Structure formats: C-alpha cells, structure tokens
Amino acid sequence: MSRDPALSSAGGPAPPAADPAPAAAATAEAPPAAILRQMIAVLETERQALAALDAEALTEAARVKEGLCGALAPLAVEALDPETRGLAETARRLNEINRRVRNLLAANVASRLAALAGVGDGVQGGATGPVTYGPGAPAPIRPQTPR
Known about the structure:
The structure is a single chain. By secondary structure, the protein is mostly helical. It has helices at 20-25, 32-52, 55-72, 82-117. Helix content is 55%, strand content 0%.
C-alpha cells in the first residue's frame, strides 16, 4: 500500500514531521523537563504513526525514544521538581496508551492470520484450548450434598 507522505490518513495535508535528530542530539545538556517534553512529543508522534500504520515513522519514534531514555537514565527521581514529575507521569501514561494500541493491533493481526490459516477459532490468536462453555463443553460438576 503506497501513500503520499504529504497527505494524512484523512486525505488532507499531513502535519509537518518534526526532525527529532537535532532535538535528540541536544538532550545531553538539556534540563529534564525539556527532555520529557521532547519525549511527550515523540510519544504523540508514535500514536499518530500507530493510527496510520506507518512502519517507518514507528521505527524512527523508537530510535528517538531510545536516545531520550538514555538522556533521562542518569536522573535521580528525588532531584525532580513537581512540574518535571508531572511531565514524567504524562509521558508514562502516553507510553502505556501506545503500548495498549500496539498490543491491540498485534492481537488483531494474529487473529486474522489464524483465521486465514484455519487455526483455532480466529479469536485472540486462535486459542485452541479446551472448551469451557458451549456445545462442546463437558457437563458441569455438581457438588455432592450430604444426605
């Protein structure tokens, strides 16, 4: 599937892609709040790339996130002011949202591939374990009551 990089998924002009390389290079001397703002911007870009299924943008976002994490690694949590901690929490939430979206996309792909391959029932990766409910399920075990 080929797409024009100048167009968004809605058909209109795509937002200009930020070049994260200069920003990532400048993180060594940047204050923690500035690094976290960059991380938040990259996470938002990653979410857009997930929505557009843009593998190239996802790869670039992962590369930049790795560099930003490297810049954040030496920081001590105790040294962060409340604003910076708030930015860190925002970045954590955005990363969690993106992780969930990635997992949903992966589960959807696995389910479709399993259905095409005729494996399982095509639900959640085609699980083929024992049937718990439904026509193929064993009769329930009823507890014995003393007489």
